[in-house]
Write a structure and sequence with these properties.
Distance between the termini: 13 Å
Shape: globular
Radius of gyration: 12 Å
Number of helices: 4
Number of strands: 0
Length: 59
């Protein structure tokens, strides 16, 4: 699946000067974390930190 195509229509309302991460990366990490059982923002962030090496292989 091409993540770029899947999330292409999601608008990014963040200010350009404040962006630290690509919106696509945030959406994919959030989706994967929720599938793995994350219930809130803290758990999503923890998932992203724990799986960083794996996620970097395709994000």
């Amino acid at each position: 699946m091409d993540w770029t195509t899947f999330f292409a229509d999601v608008p990014d309302f963040r200010l350009n000067r404040r962006k630290r991460h690509l919106l696509l990366d945030i959406l994919v990490i959030t989706l994967l974390a929720v599938i793995c059982g994350a219930d809130d923002c803290e758990e999503i962030a923890l998932y992203g930190r724990q799986k960083e090496t794996f996620l970097r292989t395709f994000l």
